Predict the 3D structure of the following.
Amino acid sequence: MCGSLEHPSPAVNRAELVTQAQVEEARSAQEQARQAQQRAERHHHQLTQQINYNTEQAHRLTQQLGEWASQPLLELQNACEGLRRQVQRRESVEREISQQTAARDALRREWGALDKQLKTQRPAVEKAKEEALRLESQRDQLSQSLPEDARDPEAMRRTLTELEHQITQLEKAWESAQQALSASQAQLARVEEQRRGANERVERSEQSLQQAQVEWQAALQASPFGDEAAFQAAQLDDTQRHELTQRIEAYQRRLAELEGALANYHTQLAGKTLPNMAALTSLTEAAQVEENDQLEAWRGLDGRLSTLRGIRQKLATAHTAQAELEAQYQLWGTLSEVANGRTGHRISLQRFVLGVLLDDVLIQASERLVRMSRGRYQLVRREDPSKGNKASGLELDVADTYTGKNRSVATLSGGESFMAALSLALGLSDVVQAYAGGIQLDTLFIDEGFGSLDQDALDQAIAMLSELQMGGRMIGVISHVSELKEQMPVRIEVRASRHGSSVEVKGALL
């Protein structure tokens, strides 16, 4: 096999070697191109979604504006100014209501604090009154329980002095309590007065609020808005209001310019004859139609041009990629063609390897066939390719020394074919043992075929089998030829009868 590969085909010699790095680089470039295409598709899809969203948004805004979408800009400006004044009035009313509400809450908190203080001081006053009553009652009890004939006047005086002192203190406490009660009552009166004033202010604020609500509802009904939610939705922030103001100012400036230009045109056209407007209008319409047709044609041609430019760019890119792939294919394609049998003798790599192995088998088989055919026949492999057959390279011919020519094995007779087949089987067993390394084919069985041999060829075949047996192999022959059976020292004879088959062993088993 190695000797057969020493002369490769010229196509292989001319091919350039491609490194694994170049293959990986080509694969990376292909992957980058595929990723770029996917990104372009995703970008196109995003742009399509954005266009659809903008279209839906414009349609939704048109529906929300309703009849205002078809109104002139001046009416929209007047409506906007009216709404802005209404918003300012409402904001002023809301600020007044908020101030009055804050004042009412402050008065309520003040009244609550005073009421709490009054409630806090009232138990102390009640407790002072109870203490004064208790002391008066205790004084009366003591006066009644005092005996008429007291034994110690000094003690009575001291007791009386102490009682007077206690009475003085209680009276002072009573006066303090009375003063505190008077002060609390005065403070309570002031708090009540303040609460009444606060309630009156609250009532006035509520009345003002109700009046403002009525005015707001009246203004809302007179406005183009259906309800307060529509009014809230129509309110603009500072940025939008500033943008609308700028647009109105730009519109007014443009209007002033057009009015000035119109007045100038009127001055220039004064005293001139009016042209035939109907004819000019017809010509203008015809020219407009022609312009539209030409514009549509130009747009179609421009779109076609853009498409063709894109196709040309893609073709240039594809040609560049194809050139790179063809450069890589010069080696790999050549190797593929050689391996698949599409060049030279059109023999595939697999059949070439099998042919080399078959040559080894034929060498061993020809040694035995030469001996069995008394030097006439040798087995050779056909070198010439078959007609358009990719599976060629494994056909066998027989070299006939009598004629000096090679001919097909199909021209052999029955006995010669058996000898050739036996030689191939024995040669294959020798090659398998040589290649496998350790595998021994110790037993061979040959089934029939000996009946087609003449006596001389039969003797040669038996001699060959005897040599194999002497080499340590067991040879089994299945045959009905009597001459062959007589030459077998050990045999098993099978006889068939009406009662079944019987087996008889002749000779001694080795």
Q: What stands out?
A: The chain has eleven helices and seven strands. The two ends are 40 Å apart (CA to CA).
